[in-house]
Amino acid sequence: MAPGPGSAVLDHEHEHGAGHDPHGFASVAVAVGRGERGRRLRRGSLVVVLSLASLTFAAELVLRVTHARERDSETLAAGIDPAWAALNRAGVFEAVSDPVRRYALRAGAEGEVDGHRYRISPQRTRGPELPAAKPAHERRLLCLGDAASFGLGCDEEETLGAQLAARASAREAELGSGLAWRALEMGVPGYHLGQTLRALEADGLALAPDLVLLYFTASQIEQSGFYHDAELGFRRDLLPLPVALKRSLWRWSHRYGWIAALHARAAEDGPEPALEPRVPWAWVRPDNQAYTRSALTGIAALCHERGVPLFVIHQPLLTPLERIRSADWPGLPLEAWFRGACAELDLSALHLLGWLRGSDGVDQRDPGAPPDRATSADLAGKRAQRLSSAGYAHVARLAHEALRTEGLLP
Question: pTM of the entire structure?
């Protein structure tokens, strides 16, 4: 059968069509085109990378020149309590490797803030160096907690622990026992209860305490905590990264510090962040309360294992007294929660709510506190009011009475 005209066309296309390239010119052209496109893509990618690198370098340079990261840290510390920033400048704190504890009192540090002397012993307690061996006649009261236990705004002899130890020693003298009590102030400003547990494990128990006093405040109900180093002081970093990585990024990248500070401020935005469940470190969050209760359980267990009595002093949220005395005071749920935790763990405790509501007829706030301080700021834990030395004297009296009733002090 003779081939039709269609087959001739097909034969022609097969011989001379686009796919037929006897000399390879078309293949070379395609390869050249692809190579050029690849070079253009690489050049474009390089330009993008160099532009981003230049912008990153420029941002880093601007942040370093303007010291924005340092200002953010200073603002944070001053917003909580101006004494924090001053203590940092005096070198009272140092970073530690523990990813939970993060920072501690710096052994051997000494400074003066607002006329008050702050000495840190080689054992990381506030006050003078301790004897190498515990004297036979000495009884030791180990005080744990945050700024309240540390005695921020007080001289060494005016802190709660010092005044309580003085009362116990006076009673020992009356009894003629020959014993004397020494207060070991190991509270650290900014600590939450998980950090306090680590401090007890690492440093506190080695000091052979005869009684452990935990001074608990509402601001310890969290688990995010602060970061600290000598250059930057205190800061919040709520980004979901490992602690070690955060520390490296803060050390080497001002841009990261700026981003972390912006993120923390955005997360805390609102009039009362401590009472807002959306805020990661809010005291009202169930996860933070569960963490705190677990830490409290750990402290109690350590003391029980060592045969050392534990006594808790519970100071509710400090706000203007007229608010504390009201039935709808926002601190009441927090007070009830911690009171319940102590009861469940069968802990001996002194709860100061009644005292703060004026049972002694004394205004326990720092007499130098501005009377118009915003209530929302108090609730947020920023520029929080703290007890004066007179206030600690009242608490020491109440605590001594309670401890005598429990048979824990003379």
Answer: 0.80
